[in-house]
Amino acid sequence: MTAKILSGKEFATQFKQTVCQKAHLFEKKYGLKPGLAVIIVGKDPASAIYVRNKHRACAETNIRSQIIELDESVSKKELLAVIDSLNKNQAVHGILLQLPLPKHLAKDGSEILSRIDPLKDVDGFHPLNVGRLSLGEDCLVPCTALGCLRLLEAAKIPLEGKRAVIVGRSNIVGKPLFHLLLQKNATVTICHSRTENLPSITKTADILIAAVGKPHFITSAMVKEKAAVIDVGINRIAPKKLVGDVAFEQVAKKAAFITPVPGGIGLLTIASLMENTLKAACLQITKRGDCIEN
Q1: Confidence (pTM)
Q2: Which of 98, 121, 175, 279 is catalytic?
Q3: Where do runs of H (alpha helix) occur along the chain?
């Protein structure tokens, strides 16, 4: 058996088309485009690429994009002042602070991220959004976790009653995805570096999500026959070679579905950011997450 490859490009294109249609309806109805402001501090090459990709996605989805470039030496006070200004700007519906921050700011990262208005927190990192997600309330959700859920739904992979295992407990992927899958009535287990006898747990998974940041960590011996395997990891093992957390070639012979790296969840993360920006605009105008009639 060879797994069906779940193309991030294919699904991301579909999601962005839907967002674009709704963003045009939003503009027609309310007289302005949904607006996203991205703050980038310093000249990190990888961050610059990510920001350009987000800017391009905004152009594709009728979302107004603003990039604010700050010098690496910017003070915390100055950065907070920029965030405060964007919080007050009614034309800006979403604020994203590109990570990582320079060392002198990283130590205060939680405080800085918490300064973003929860209704404009398109990364879903604000404590209020984290709390709302854990309670099953409507909120802005971390984009990579949302992208994983959207992919599973679009691929029509059953969730209700199924056993899902997440390997990795980060605040960006593992923990929010735990809550998202639980809300879909999956039976969810989250594993981490202190989990004992990990393969005995991963082999029970109908849906296995790898988000540990270790190249080829998940092998075929850790995967249940005909499982859906979602690889969130992006690991650079050579100047021009990226691989995931899953040993793709061997696992693809055992699983029913698998995502590639590159070309998988990373593209859905950006598509989910567009969805979150539109949702944030709706929340600010109508207090509802979807203010556009389908």
Answers
A1: 0.94
A2: 98
A3: 8-30, 45-60, 76-88, 103-106, 109-114, 127-134, 143-154, 174-183, 198-202, 248-251, 265-286
Catalytic site includes residue 231? no
**pLDDT single digits (tens) 234-278:** 998 888 898 999 999 999 999 999 999 999 999 999 999 999 999
Instruction: State the catalytic residue, choosing from 22, 33, 121, 123.
Output: 123
Q: Which of 22, 54, 162, 224 is catalytic?
A: 54
Check: CB of residue 9 under 8 Å from CB of residue 263: yes
pLDDT digits 0-9 by tens, 122-145: 999 999 999 999 999 999 999 999
98 is catalytic: yes
CA angle 143, 146, 148 (to 5 degrees): 110
- Is 123 known to be catalytic? yes
Half-sphere exposure of 11 (CA within 13 A, CB side): 25
